[in-house]
Specification:
Layout (H helix, E strand, L loop, with lengths): L3 H7 L1 H13 L3 H29 L5 H8 L2 H9 L7 H17 L3 E8 L4 E8 L7 H16 L5 E5 L6 E4 L1 H7 L8 E3 L11 E6 L2 E8 L2 E6 L13 E3 L2 E3 L6 E3 L14 E2 L1 E4 L2 E5 L14
Parallel strand pairs: 2-3
Antiparallel strand pairs: 1-2, 3-4, 5-14, 6-7, 7-8, 8-12, 9-10, 10-11, 13-14
Helix pairs in contact: 2-3, 6-7
């Protein structure tokens, strides 16, 4: 027996083609843009269905729903249709867990204080994140992106400031404008970083910026290619444990703790997180956009 919903979906292809044909009346360019939009949407849902089938092959039962809910691609489709089984607080908490390794590289952490009924998330940084020289980058690019990707219904993020009685509020419009953006202040996938072995140091061109990346144990770190002591490139730098040594002035920088040196200087750290399974680096807006090139 065919339900009304089944009949509606069977007619969807015809309705889509009718809409495309109506776009043709506005010219070839409008028709091509509409066709491209349809291809992108179909491709997204096709990839989602493929992922669902792959996850289902791991075994049915109660665990399947959890695997679907925690997969980035499938979860994004569930969120679009309001079908995600986890609460906003659970999704925000899980998102913060994913960025904690990056915050830990700054000697700090973040606490989730609460999520209000109207979608306001309240956070507090702890440890040296409160005064870390790149805390603004950490907040806007790492925490914001993780929270909004996991819970797009969040209306704003309030951060308990280090000074009592002061609270910094990030407007929702500012957050939503940059979520999953690959433009200014965007995230740029650098899959080559996955090939770094412990102790390796390598340079990459990412969005017109030379990025120096290294791996200590199972954790990767990224910094701008600039020594603040001798004002030169770090090309040729080597790791000695967690210390990155400038080949020119011989200054050691602790890459695990925000690139700090004993003389009070520090490297310029860049957020580096796994997004959709690919290591990606965030570049602030001060650089003009450019496609990533080969390793430096």
């Amino acid at each position: 027996m065919t339900s009304d919903n089944d009949a509606q979906w069977r007619m969807a292809g015809d309705r889509i083609q009718t809409l495309l044909d109506s776009c043709a009346a506005s010219g070839a360019a409008a028709y091509e843009r509409a066709s491209e939009l349809v291809r992108e949407v179909v491709g997204l849902y096709g990839a989602g269905l493929e992922r669902i089938m792959l996850l289902a092959q791991d075994g049915p039962g109660p665990g399947l729903a959890e695997r679907l809910a925690t997969d980035d691609l499938v979860a994004s489709l569930l969120l679009i249709h309001g079908l995600h089984p986890h609460s906003v607080r659970r999704r925000v908490s899980d998102a913060l867990d994913r960025v904690r390794p990056y915050l830990g590289s700054h000697g700090g952490d973040v606490d989730l204080l609460g999520v209000s009924d109207d979608g306001v998330v309240r956070l507090a940084f702890t440890g040296s994140c409160k005064s870390c020289p790149s805390s603004s980058v950490t907040l806007e690019l790492a925490v914001q992106d993780a929270v909004l990707a996991a819970a797009p219904e969040v209306t704003s993020i309030e951060v308990l400031a280090a000074e009592p009685g002061a609270t910094g509020v990030i407007p929702a419009e500012s957050l939503l404008a940059r979520v999953h953006s690959n433009g200014p202040r965007g995230w740029h996938p650098v899959p080559e970083l996955a090939e770094l072995a412990p102790g390796d140091v390598a340079g990459y061109r990412v969005d017109a910026t030379t990025v120096l990346a290294c791996r200590v144990g199972d954790q990767a770190f990224a910094y701008r290619d600039h020594c603040p002591v001798c004002d030169a490139t770090l090309a040729g730098a080597e790791l000695h444990g967690a210390q990155l040594r400038c080949p020119r002035c011989q200054t050691d920088f602790d890459v695990v703790h925000a690139g700090a040196a004993v003389n009070g200087t520090h490297l310029d750290p860049l957020p580096l997180l796994a997004r959709d399974g690919v290591l990606s680096v965030a570049i602030p807006a001060r650089e003009p956009a450019q496609t990533m090139g080969a390793p430096a």
